[in-house]
Amino acid sequence: MSSGISRRSVIQAAGIGTALAATGFSLTACSSSGNAGGDVGSAGKSLAPFPTYVPWNQGPTPDLPATAQGVQAGYKKYPSSLAQAVAEKPGDGSKITVWFSSWSATPLPRGKNQFWKAVEEALGVELDITVVPAMEYSKKLTTLMASGQMPDILQITPAANESRFVLAKCQDLSDFISGDNIKKYPNLANIPTYAWKAAGRFAGALFGVPVERPIIGHQHIVNQEKFKQAGLLVPEVGGIGVEEFTKGLQQLSGKGKFAIGAETGGAFGFNAWMPAFGTPNMWMVKDGAFVNYLETDEFQAGLEQMVEWQQAGIFRTDALTIDGVQAKTEFLGQKVYSRVNSSIDFSNVSKENKGQFTIDIALPFKPSNGATPVHWLGGGTYGNGYTVLKKAPKARIELLLRVMDALAAPFGSKEWELFNYGVEDVHFKRNTAGDPVPSELALSGGDGPDSLPVKYVAAAPLPLYIAGQPDAVQRQYDFQQKVIPIGVSRADIGLRTNAWTESQQALEKQREDAMKDIVTGRKKLSDWPAVIEEFKRKGGAKAAEALATEYEAAQKA
After folding, report:
1. Nearest C-alpha neighbor of 436 from the set 419, 455, 453
2. Class of the 7-29+63-213+382-465 domain?
3. Is it the case that residue 134 has pLDDT exceeding 70?
């Protein structure tokens, strides 16, 4: 695996002093920019319009239609014929350096990697790629930012002071993609507006290109047979009370089995339980002010329920020692009967399950606090991130955007198949139904779209398609139809302020640590008011004020 920037300089940057490590990047390194250390907020600034949405109309007709509210279009079978989404090769033969993350094994080197070569051939460029393990990406990204260097194309995920870095070091794309300018890049124009809004503005300008994800958010993914046996699957939201739901979970737990899987991350799946108690999604606007969900009675009611479940043995006592790989293995092995995760995870476990049991999704229960259940919607981008470009002359930026436009070719196109499955008879074969089936080389050989996921640089809207699993597609679609109408979004989506940007990661860690302490009994529920005060004192109060100002400015756009 090659690297497009000096590895030595990045390694040297890792040894910088503690003050620099704390801030996330070097203001000195960015001093050449007039925006270095400036205000990332958009209040009081001219606001670039978000790109015009122009849906692609050459693809297959979905079996299950999308809705204006955000329910995904569903495809129960793979298209029998594929369209051409890119008229001509976007590249000019030049080299492009790229950084992105991967959840899979390290890819084979460029010279031995057939998928790498195929992608370069399709794009008409030489790709000098650095792939970083996803669990290390935030740390590596912070080190890269501190080095004062960056590749041509960089995947950004939440990191300390990333917004200031973007404003200081990356290309302002407003003149290239705002409004109707995006029509020059038709596949990028096919990205829905909600994803662009989630990528947001920086000081009023557009810098990030989103990698779209469904807005459905997290869900309670269950073993259908076990949950039916316990009477926990009901046809409507609120169709079962939390007391009855808890009894069913207790019925499934015991003798080394657990109704709900939990692991080191995710705070015991709180983002499925809190909304059932009517809790707002992270931030809400009340009388013009921003209120964090930690401050609400609904959040505390959900937390109290989680404590009860832990004491009843519904979560395993050693949950915080379980990593994500083990958690999924235990779900598929039926040691635990449910897990809270994304719609992407629903698709993955449906494919990996191999028919051992039916994977389904439980609807929100009726809470004990008299509230109306809601569902937390996602932001609409992969990992709450986006892709940025290194500052360059206009012609170079246009080249990079053409490359990203090609990578964003939609489902139902020849290009989408290449970037998501690879080369036929090398990385996949078709089964009798016409579905692409990955080869061993693609699955575990380090050669294919999983180990070299260029789709994290730019991508089309994610289709609701699960190869060979039409019934699973229907179950996910039915779930979305029932919960998206009660869905609530975060009020801070796409808003940037120095106060929130600089404190968000630390405050979210404080929240998760406090929840873990209370659920496991290391602290008491009565300690929660102190958690709220600590949140406010360490930046939450200032963030709320700044976000309210930004929110007001955004409403005027």
Report:
1. 419
2. alpha beta
3. yes
| Residues in a beta bridge with 424 | 428
Q: State the pTM of this model.
A: 0.90
CATH superfamily of 219-376+486-555: Periplasmic binding protein-like II (3.40.190.10)
In degrees and rounded to multiples of 5, residue 383 shows phi and psi of 60, 25
Q: Cα–Cα distance between 378 and 384 in angstroms, integer?
A: 9
Per DSSP, the three-state class of 209 is strand
- 289 sits in which H/E element: strand 289-292
257, 391 Cβ separation under 8 angstroms? no
- Residue (of 182, 188, 192, 233) closest to 214 by Cα position: 192
Q: What share of the chain is helix, strand, coil (3-state, %, to 5)?
A: 45, 15, 45
Q: Is the CA virtual torsion 144, 148, 149, 154 positive or negative?
A: positive
Q: In what order do the strands lie in the sheet with 153-156?
A: 126-133, 95-102, 153-156, 386-389
The bridge status of strand 283-286 relative to strand 289-292 is antiparallel
How large a percentage of the chain has pLDDT more than 70? Answer: 93
Q: Can you tell me the distance from the alpha carbon of 439 to that of 244, in angstroms, rounded to the nearest whole number? A: 45
Spans of all domains in the chain: 7-29+63-213+382-465, 219-376+486-555
